[in-house]
Amino acid sequence: MSFEDFKREALKLPADDREDLAYNLLQSLDEEEEDSSAEHERLWRNEIERRYREYKEGKAELFDADEVLAELRAEIV
Q1: Looking at residue 65, what is its pLDDT?
Q2: Alpha-carbon distance 3 to 76, whole Å?
Q3: In angstroms, rounded to a whole number, what is the distance separating the alpha carbons of residues 3 and 6?
Q4: Could you give the dihedral angle defined by the CA atoms of residues 31, 34, 40 and 42, in that order, rounded to the nearest 10 degrees?
Q5: What CA–CA distances, in Å, run from 57 to 21, 50, 53, 54?
Q6: 47/38 Cα distance (integer angstroms)
Q7: Is 22 in contact with 11 (CB distance < 8 Å)?
Q8: For residue range 24-75, what is the model confidence (pLDDT) as tens digits?
């Protein structure tokens, strides 16, 4: 069954069934997003660990937060 066939048949369903179908489809997207979110969290954790390791090894270039914020504020104004 093609997507268009499925959509055509789904639109023939009573409103309650269409609502249930829509809810279940949205839930499935949330589940995919949660899986993706866990992967993003893992990648960020790895990045944080890498940056911290570079800091501890003296390889990271550090900037004073007050100076960076002052520069950004000056650019905005």
Answers
A1: 96
A2: 49
A3: 5
A4: -110
A5: 54, 11, 6, 5
A6: 14
A7: no
A8: 999 888 777 776 788 888 999 999 999 999 999 999 999 999 999 999 999 9
